[in-house]
Amino acid sequence: KKVNDIETQIPALLEAKMHAISGNHFCTAKDLTEEIRSLTSEREGLEGLLSKLLVLSSRNVKKLGSVKEDYDRLRREVEHQETAYETSVKENTMKYMETLKDKLCSCKCPLLGKVWEADLEACRLLMQSLQLQEARGSLSVEDERQMDALE
User: Which tens digit of pLDDT belongs to each residue from 78-130?
Assistant: First the structure.
């Protein structure tokens, strides 16, 4: 805005300077010349600052884009690692449950059998919990996709 104001003032000052010269008011013409130089210098300084700001703004936009890409990539990696971990926990729990079932079938000690039954029940509860989390997770993933589609 300031640059536009200066660019509006300079032609008017040049015209006033021409009138001053034609009217033999050289002192006034000299003052107007000085004012024109001052405004021209100020305009050039402002244009330089504006140019620097545009460069910085462009860099910030690029950096923001890069940060967003990094965030998206890291989010995908975390989701992949979480899925791999959950799969591993499920597989290990299922194997342990099979082992417990086999041991229960051949167990002759009632007390040890009760411990293994309790352990087996804990594994069942863990599997149910994981399935519920998975169901909730798929719902929130669907919500997230819908939100992304709206953006």
Answer: 999 999 999 999 999 999 999 999 999 999 999 999 999 999 999 999 999 99
Residues contacting 10, CB < 8 A, separation 6+: 36, 39, 40, 43
Q: Which residues contact 100 (CB under 8 A, 6 or more apart)?
A: 116, 119, 120, 123
pTM: 0.54
Domain that holds residue 59: 2-150
Amino acid sitting at position 116: W
Query: For the chain, how many structural domains are there in total?
Result: 1
